[in-house]
């Protein structure tokens, strides 16, 4: 199992992350698609080849082909949007009404029926990318879509741990 490969690669100083990822992959807060889509989108957001390939390998067992692709779509569209929305915020009121001017059709047509799941994945990616504008916007949408604050927080925890695992893998590759 690929999560197992990641856990086994973590050194003693990252024991907490080994335990955290093990616990989170058995989450009862999120359904299977929500959990594995969040894991996969978060892995893509880390930009760590090892983490992406290990999580993707196992995610294929839990996600439909459409959901698998949608998770990557969530990561890529938020890679763009997180940069642009943060910049608009930094630039101030003069840019508030500026037309965005970038294509993002995947948000309205993510390829899966459960649009709330796609929004949850975007929230997780935005957490990793540090865009408070997008985190707040996607949290509102998923809560309106019926997800609980516990489910939202579970997705944030998944994103945080996947990021920590990716950082550990990178540290170990650099030693």
From TrEMBL:
Keywords: Antioxidant, Disulfide bond, Oxidoreductase, Peroxidase, Redox-active center. InterPro entries: AhpD, AhpD-like, AhpD_core, CMD-like. Gene3D superfamilies: AhpD-like. Disulfide bonds join 131-134. One of its GO terms (molecular function) is disulfide oxidoreductase activity. It holds the Pfam family CMD. It is an enzyme of class 1 (oxidoreductase). Homotrimer. PANTHER family: ALKYL HYDROPEROXIDE REDUCTASE AHPD. This is Alkyl hydroperoxide reductase AhpD. It comes from Corynebacterium yudongzhengii. The lineage of its organism: Bacteria, Bacillati, Actinomycetota, Actinomycetes, Mycobacteriales.
């Amino acid at each position: 199992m690929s999560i197992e490969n990641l856990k086994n690669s973590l050194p003693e100083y990252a024991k907490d992350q080994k335990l955290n990822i093990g616990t989170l992959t058995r989450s009862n807060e999120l359904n299977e698609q929500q959990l594995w889509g969040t894991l996969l989108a978060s892995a893509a957001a880390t930009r760590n080849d090892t983490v992406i390939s290990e999580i993707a390998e196992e995610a294929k067992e839990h996600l439909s082909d459409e959901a698998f692709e949608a998770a990557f779509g969530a990561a890529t569209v938020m890679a763009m949007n997180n940069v642009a929305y943060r910049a608009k915020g930094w630039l101030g009121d003069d840019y508030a009404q500026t037309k965005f001017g970038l294509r993002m059709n995947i948000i309205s047509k993510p390829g899966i029926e459960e649009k709330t799941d796609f929004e949850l994945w975007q929230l997780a990616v935005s957490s990793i990318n540090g865009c408070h504008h997008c985190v707040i916007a996607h949290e509102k949408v998923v809560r309106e879509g019926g997800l609980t604050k516990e489910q939202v927080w579970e997705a944030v925890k998944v994103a945080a741990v996947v990021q920590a695992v990716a950082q550990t893998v990178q540290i170990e590759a650099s030693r």
